[in-house]
UniProtKB/TrEMBL annotation:
This is Precorrin-6x reductase CbiJ. One of its GO terms (molecular function) is precorrin-6A reductase activity. PROSITE patterns: COBK_CBIJ. GO terms for biological process: cobalamin biosynthetic process. Its EC number is 1.3.1.-, 1.3.1.54. The keyword Ligase does not apply. The gene is cbiJ.
Length: 255
């Protein structure tokens, strides 16, 4: 059986392809929302809930996992680290599906930082409204250093996330509860509507809409603040859905 770690649109596509190829798949997502993205995919099992390293290993042993296909978000470094350690301890295969990084295409106003904290430090010394599109996990980094009245947070419209924004001092009028994907034109409209000077994004690749954000920033003449991906030694990496699915199937066949 293949343990597919996911919770994004990528993992749904992988699950569909693996099922079509006749593979036995258990998709594990950290959240119920992530699990719901795979709803309707026939021929696979799903579960949700964050796993510690020990819990991941026990799950792999219990279900007879022979390959972990890691399709977690590019910024879910701890989940990937746990998966790599688990496969090494159990002697099973590990395959990483990694979205291609975004090319800035000569956009001189795209500024890269190695962490949300570094990006927040930069923004704290600047002026102008900031559109955060990095999700809810890094909100604390920005609210701790940037005045809340400068921040607009575009986040998933779930009660937990909205509540977190409010608890951190972001007023309801500055919480943009929306679920993507977002086109360049929609990003441009938000930039104009809220008089944005900086748009903050992760390098989430084409699937994460990074190009549309950079395109909107360039068209509107504002700066894009990009948080670089964590540096990880994954081992075998596949950058396409087809490659990752085939690699996982071949890894099982070789065991």
């Amino acid at each position: 059986m293949i343990l597919l770690l996911g919770g994004t649109c990528d993992s749904r596509a992988l699950a569909e392809l693996l099922a079509k190829k006749g593979a036995s798949v258990l998709l594990s997502a950290a959240t119920e929302y992530g699990e719901s993205l795979a709803s309707g995919v026939t021929g696979i099992e799903t579960r949700s809930g964050r796993l510690t390293s020990i819990e991941l290993e026990l799950l792999a042993l219990e279900r007879g996992i022979r390959c972990i296909l890691d399709a977690t978000h590019p910024y879910a470094a701890q989940a990937s680290k746990s998966a790599i350690e688990c496969t090494r301890r159990l002697g099973i295969a590990y395959i990483r599906y990694e979205r291609a990084k975004t090319q800035c295409g000569g956009f001189s106003e795209a500024l890269r930082f190695d962490s949300a904290a570094q990006a927040a430090d930069f923004l704290s010394c600047s002026e102008g409204n900031v559109l955060l599109t990095t999700g809810s996990n890094t909100l604390e980094e920005f609210t701790a250093k940037v005045e809340p009245e400068r921040l607009y947070a575009r986040v998933l419209p779930t009660s937990g996330v909205i509540g977190k924004c409010e608890a951190l001092g972001i007023k309801p009028s500055r919480i943009i509860g929306m679920q993507g994907p977002f086109s360049e034109s929609m990003n441009r409209e938000l930039i104009r509507s809220y008089n944005i000077s900086f748009i903050v994004t992760k390098d989430a690749g084409a699937e994460g809409g990074t190009a549309e954000k950079l395109g909107a920033a360039k068209a509107e003449g504002i700066k894009a603040v990009i948080i670089n991906r964590p540096q990880m030694e994954y081992g075998r990496i596949c950058s396409t859905i087809e490659c990752a699915a085939q690699a996982a199937i071949e890894a099982i066949a070789a065991m």
